[in-house]
Write a structure and sequence with these properties.
- With 156 residues, this protein is of the alpha/beta class.
- The protein is built from 3 helices and 7 strands; from the N terminus they run βααββββαββ.
- The strands form 2 sheets. Strands 5-4-3-7-6 form a 5-stranded mixed beta sheet. Strands 1-2 form a two-stranded parallel sheet.
- It is elongated and about 70 Å long.
- The two termini are 29 Å apart.
């Protein structure tokens, strides 16, 4: 089984979601099914159908989260060496073509969220940054063309 890297925070977020689904949402949907059953004929009962569909979604998500957590490799990023780019650090970059500056945290693929400044270690930019030092320049191919960045700062 391939291991998937997670930050401590990302792992905890998935665990919390799983606990909520198993302890809260599962109980709610079971109650909704009971209430819908009490209304009589199930063949024309939209409430029952909706509750059963929600139950299937919850059970599918629970299974998915169990699989993700079972294959997780949790990496504690607090004591990372900030001399070079490694999993879990934040990187301040300057786009050498536009002059724009941005900060990204290198995270696992299941945690990536570009709007929140989190990029996957497996993304083209993430792969290009790993192992680089402050002052290094990286060039990556994106669907929008070639981009050139300079690493201004590496921090936790």
């Amino acid at each position: 089984m391939e291991r998937t890297p997670f930050t401590v925070e990302g792992y905890r977020r998935l665990k919390k979601e799983l606990e909520n689904l198993e302890k809260v949402e599962r109980a709610k949907v079971i109650k909704a099914i009971e209430v819908a059953r009490a209304h009589g004929d199930l063949s024309e009962n939209a409430e029952y159908d909706a509750a059963k569909e929600r139950q299937a979604q919850i059970e599918g998500r629970i299974q998915y989260l169990h699989n993700k957590l079972d294959s997780a490799e949790v990496i504690d990023c607090k004591n990372q060496d900030c001399e070079r780019v490694v999993f879990g650090v934040k990187v301040r970059l300057e786009n050498l073509d536009s002059g724009e500056r941005c900060v990204y945290r290198i995270v696992g693929p299941d945690e990536s969220d570009i709007k929140r400044g989190k990029i996957s270690v497996r993304s083209p930019l993430g792969q290009a940054l790993i192992g680089k030092y402050e002052g290094d320049e990286v060039t990556i191919r994106t669907p929008g063309g070639i981009r050139n960045y300079e690493i201004l700062e590496i921090f936790v």
